[in-house]
Amino acid sequence: MIVAIDGPSGAGKSSASKAVAAKLGFACLDTGAMYRSIAWQALHDGVALDDGEALGALARSKPIDFAPGEAGGPQRVLIGGIDVTRDIRTAEIDRSVSAVSAHPQVRAALVDQQRRIGRAGDYVVEGRDIGTAVFPDAEVKVFLTASNEERARRRVAQNEARGVGSTDFASVLADIELRDALDSSRAASPLKAASDAVVIDSSALSFDEVVSAICDLARNRKAGC
């Protein structure tokens, strides 16, 4: 079973996905971390962010893996065997990942890998085009969103807790609005809710309320199979 959770930056997809997966006994696939990893590798290697062919080749040649966190910590992300868990959560990557993910060559390389992983079991998969492009036949589709200001507030709090990324509200808000515009207007798999997705605006909801709503959708769908 696939539970697809799409939505814009800062909507709480990653945290909600992990919690939903834990409650349902599913595995969790963070596709955003995969695109962030390619952005990190491109910056590390000096690959131009507007060179789709080079970025696509990089995405095909660098395997991305997920590993359990140490001592119960967050899931680790590795690209080419290098642990980039913290490195991909910086403000620089925030500003770079939309340009990287807009290239069809990159998306094709990573979507193939995402489908291979997701079809191996029960998964909660989060991203921006999971329900529309990666798993259009997903049994449960959610589009999780929130107001721009609420998403910026959450991102600032998250960055403060991690000690990584900007903690300036105005700067974070501007980055979120820019990324929304880029993600929604790209030609390859733009950010949008699938026609059969359940839209959840989490602006006024608690984290537990969001998780419970998504779990209920999955349980109801499984009960109806």
Mean pLDDT across all residues, rounded? 93
Low-confidence spans: none
Based on Cα principal axes, name the global outline.
Answer: globular
| Termini gap | 11 Å
Strand order in the largest sheet: 2-6-1-7-8
Order of helices and strands: EHEHHEEEHHEHEHHEH
Count of individual domains: 1
The CATH superfamily title: P-loop containing nucleotide triphosphate hydrolases
How many beta strands in the DSSP annotation?
Answer: 8
Q: What is the helical fraction, as a range of percent?
A: 40-55%
Largest sheet: 5 strands, parallel
**CATH level 1 name:** Alpha Beta
Count of helical segments? 9
Describe this protein with a few key phrases.
three-stranded antiparallel beta sheet; Rossmann fold; alpha/beta
Concise description?
The protein is an alpha/beta fold. Helices cover 52% and strands 15% of the residues.
